[in-house]
Amino acid sequence: xxxxxxxxxxxxxEAETVTxxxxxxxxxxxxxxxxxxxxxxxxxxxxRRGIREEVKEFQExxxxxxxxxxxxxxxxQLRFRVSMVIGDGKGRVGLGIxxxxxxxxxxxxxxxxxxxxxxxxPIVDGTIAHDVTANFKSSAIFIHPAHxxxxxIAGGSARKVFAVAGLKDVIAKQHGAPNTITNxxxxxKALQSLKPSSLTRxxxxxx
Length: 207
Known about the structure:
The protein is α+β, with helices and mostly antiparallel strands. It has 5 helices and 8 strands, in the order ααβββαββββαβα. The chain starts with 7 loop residues before the first helix and ends in a 15-residue tail after the last helix.
């Protein structure tokens, strides 16, 4: 032990020195623990594979979410009806309708139904190759090809169908009832009646 007598100032200096040494040791311990943790940490695995990646094969567009009531002997049953269209952007598109007690369940049913009702039609340079007209119940639609850069000139459900199907330049006009599902069905009927690509003509070169 030192024979030097301790004064209040000396005790304060010694206390500050001890506090500094403890702080440095604590910081070193934390850095070592952090480095060990980083070294031992395994890369995160993406366990959300399978169904969701399969769904990404198609683009999804919800047309409408409606509340429907079914009257039974036990009373009224409230459910949700979801109508949606899916497409791969390469000429395949389908309409699906699903009903369930929850919105998420109705969306899943509509997605499965749309996969079962896929249709295929030819796309030439981002548009269709000839005019087409179709009628379904009280709705009618006329679809006309357009030059590159025109865009999608259509409204309502027809615009969503063209977008997920892969059409970039097209002009469409609908007549009749404003029912979303009916207008979607008449649009799909018109696309399905297009001629095969071997008989189509290209509009890529503007005169």
